[in-house]
Amino acid sequence: MVDLGGKSLHDDFIIEMLEEAILDEFEEKDYAIFEQQLLDLNLEPPEFRKFLNRIILSKSKSFQDKISVILKDQQQNLLEEAFRRAKKRYKAKMTLRFMSFEQDEVGE
Question: Model's pTM, two decimal places?
C-alpha cells in the first residue's frame, strides 16, 4: 500500500467515503454535537461509541453500518478526520449559500 505521510491510500479512501456519508446524513445540530461531545476528547472506544450512537440513531441504516464497521476495525481516528473534513465543507457550503442569498437581496 502507498503511504501518504502516515495514511495509506486505503485510509484516505475510507476518510473520503465517510466524509461524503457525513455530508449526506448530518444536519447542523449533528456537527455541533459531534464536535462538543466527541472530537479530540480521546474517549475510550466504548464511551466514544455510546455518544456516537446517540447522534446516528436517527440516520440511515447504511450510514449506521458504515460507522459500525469503522469502529469495529478500531479506526476512530479516521472517523474523526472524516468529520473534520466534512465540517469544513459543510461550513463552506453554508457560507456560499449565505453569500448568494445576500447578493440576491442586494441585487433586488
Answer: 0.78
